[in-house]
Amino acid sequence: MAEDLRGSALIFDLDGTLVDTVEDLSASMNHVLAAAGLAPVPTGEVRHLVGHGARRMLMRGFLLSAGREAQEGELDDAMTRFLDFYGENIAVHSRPFDHVIEMTEGFLARGARAAICTNKREAMARRLIETLGVAPLFDAIVGADTAEAAKPDPAPVRLCLQEIGAARAAFIGDSDTDIRAAGAAGLPCFVADFGYGPVTLADRAAVFSSYREAAPLIEAALKG
Ligand SMILES: O=C(O)COP(=O)(O)O
Ligand SMILES: [Mg+2]
After folding, report:
1. Which of 107, 150, 193, 203 is least surrounded by Cβ atoms within 10 Å, i.e. has the fewest?
2. Where are the beta strands (DSSP E) in the chain?
3. Angle CA(176)–CA(134)–CA(189) in degrees, nearest 5?
4. Is-contact 12 101, C-beta < 8 A?
5. Are 191 and 206 within 8 A, CB to CB?
6. In this model, does residue 201 exceed pLDDT 80?
7. Per the record, GO CC terms (predicted)?
8. 32 pLDDT band (50/70/90 cuts)?
9. Measuring from each residue's beta carbon to the nearest atom of ligand 1, which residues come in under 6 Å?
10. What's the mean per-residue pLDDT of the chain?
11. Each residue of 45-83: pLDDT tens digit?
């Protein structure tokens, strides 16, 4: 069995797919809102704001809290404050989802490679996985600011494939953004139903509830 997955790759979305980050994202956003004299947004609502990058999350959080659009200057200040705070508090609560690391190690032991394709900034994504001690598993990390466009554009997915040189790959995500990006890059997409969504395009993906359930499905797609 040793190298039967050589030439294939797992490409993971990060927030809501590989790592459960919402508590730390929420604490960081609420730190920014508090500094602006605004009420916090509950974590249960923040999870629906993740997946399009920090600026979009702050824009929507500001609207929910203040009931009005943030102005450009306010958003620039909010981004600076957010990135400072989040960078320092990136893995207070954030942890990989159950069994995803074991699954990935199992695929790597059989010759596959793994990459991360996220709408987080690349530096933040690197900091997160380094802090969690899982960086050595990933041969490429592509963020929203790495390729010429962010997901749902397929460019970051293609860049991952190019960087790791895989002939076959499966994309694992948690939202329509991932389903669109993977589809446009010609990859099969697996979607975690415990992620942050939204998922309205489930007919274009294979939805799973745990990595134990997903592993054989992903393996079959890589071998098929
Ligand atoms: O919105 C973000 O910051 C990143 O989200 P993603 O890792 O799910 O692409
Ligand atoms: Mg996600």
Report:
1. 203
2. 8-12, 19-20, 95-96, 113-117, 140-142, 168-173, 189-192, 206-208
3. 25
4. no
5. yes
6. yes
7. cytosol
8. very high
9. 13-16, 50-54, 57, 118-120
10. 96
11. 999 999 899 999 999 999 999 999 988 899 999 999 999
The answer to whether the CB of 41 falls within 8 A of the CB of 64 is yes
Catalytic-labelled residue, pool 13, 15, 176, 178:
13
Domains, the chain, in order of start with CATH, read: 8-20+94-223 (3.40.50.1000), 22-88 (1.10.150.240)
Nearest one of 78, 45, 36 to 197, comparing CA atoms: 45
Six-digit token string for 194: 């415990």
Residue with tokens 């600011």: 145
Taking the C-alpha atoms of residue 150 and residue 145, their distance in angstroms, rounded to an integer, is: 7
Question: Which of 184, 195, 200 has its CA nearest to residue 152?
Answer: 184
Measure 177 CA to ligand 1 centroid, in angstroms: 10
Interface pTM (ipTM) of the complex? Answer: 0.95
Kindly state the tokens that stand for 209: 């509830």
